[in-house]
From TrEMBL:
<dbReference type="InterPro" id="IPR046470">
    <property type="entry name" value="SAM_HAT_C"/>
</dbReference>
<comment type="similarity">
    <text>Belongs to the SAM hydrolase / SAM-dependent halogenase family.</text>
</comment>
<dbReference type="InterPro" id="IPR023227">
    <property type="entry name" value="SAM_OH_AdoTrfase_C_sf"/>
</dbReference>
<dbReference type="InterPro" id="IPR046469">
    <property type="entry name" value="SAM_HAT_N"/>
</dbReference>
<dbReference type="Pfam" id="PF20257">
    <property type="entry name" value="SAM_HAT_C"/>
</dbReference>
<dbReference type="InterPro" id="IPR002747">
    <property type="entry name" value="SAM_OH_AdoTrfase"/>
</dbReference>
<dbReference type="Pfam" id="PF01887">
    <property type="entry name" value="SAM_HAT_N"/>
</dbReference>
<protein>
    <recommendedName>
        <fullName>SAM-dependent chlorinase/fluorinase</fullName>
    </recommendedName>
</protein>
<feature type="domain" description="S-adenosyl-l-methionine hydroxide adenosyltransferase C-terminal">
    <location>
        <begin position="173"/>
        <end position="248"/>
    </location>
</feature>
<dbReference type="InterPro" id="IPR023228">
    <property type="entry name" value="SAM_OH_AdoTrfase_N_sf"/>
</dbReference>
<keyword id="KW-0949">S-adenosyl-L-methionine</keyword>
<feature type="domain" description="S-adenosyl-l-methionine hydroxide adenosyltransferase N-terminal">
    <location>
        <begin position="10"/>
        <end position="150"/>
    </location>
</feature>
Length: 257
């Protein structure tokens, strides 16, 4: 198809660490040997579906249309949770039906989802659907397979990051992701004030991390489009003791100071 990659591209995201992704890659390459395999991340915090969903959403849109995104963060592996394929905006997604794929699919366009039928699970190890179900499904999709051929259409499990609330005294927001630098990503797409405080500390409003002084906390709009609390040369996670799921109040600073 015009405008699509000449060789199939499959991205991979999981909470598997360093060993198990190789088995998924082997399952793909044994079926489609010329695939370009790109790792998004395999260090998603174990079983943290929301963190995996954010990482997938942040990365997927930078790939060309026609890319297949294989994502597995799957606390329900071996249960009756569905496996699904999702088509949206020229991208294809495959993984468990636990909301992991949905923010990325919605950011790409209008998602349509299909169940991966029971026949696809025959002979699969009950603890490794990533290798035995989702990787082969990704190979089928990358080979031009019709996502509707996997099974009936379904309404997939949803997941969203909610929305920050702008109040008179500040912004009530939720931590949705903490990266490897300790930068804290919030579910706010705006920073409406120049002076913001958190837990009694002023956050410098900055365009880049280096605009703040050494070890100075700051707030910026990250490359992913969400507000991000950081510390120049340090860790906002450690400074403020924050973790995904925490709710915080960014207090509006006194502009007269």
């Amino acid at each position: 198809m015009s405008g699509y990659p000449k060789r199939p591209i499959i991205t991979l995201l999981s909470d598997f660490g360093s060993l198990y992704p190789a088995e998924m890659k082997g399952a793909i390459l044994s079926r489609i040997g010329d695939a370009i395999l790109v790792d998004i991340a395999h260090d998603v915090p174990p079983q943290d579906v929301r963190a995996g969903a954010f990482a997938l959403m942040a990365a997927a849109g930078h790939f060309p249309k026609g890319t297949v995104h294989l994502a597995v963060v799957d606390p329900g592996v071996g249960t009756d949770r569905l496996g699904i394929v999702v088509a949206s905006g020229g991208h294809l997604f495959v993984g468990p039906d636990n909301g992991l794929l949905i923010p990325a699919a919605k950011s790409a366009g209008e998602p349509a989802a299909w169940m991966i039928g029971p026949s696809f699970f025959e002979g699969a190890a009950p603890t490794f659907a990533g290798r035995d179900v989702f990787a082969p499904a990704a190979a089928v999709l990358a080979s031009g397979g019709d996502p509707g051929s996997f099974g009936p259409a379904v309404d997939p499990a949803g997941l969203d990051f909610g929305r920050a609330r702008i109040l008179d005294e500040g912004i009530e927001a939720e931590v949705i992701y903490v990266d490897g630098f300790g930068n804290v990503v919030l579910n706010s797409a705006a920073i409406p004030w120049d002076r913001v405080e958190l837990m009694g500390r002023r956050l410098r409003r900055a365009r880049t991390y280096a605009e703040a002084g050494a070890d100075e906390p700051l707030i910026t709009l990250g490359s992913h489009g969400f507000a991000e609390i950081a510390v120049n040369g340090g860790s906002a996670k450690d400074l403020f003791g924050l973790a995904p799921g925490d709710r915080i109040l960014l207090e509006r600073g006194d502009c007269s100071e």
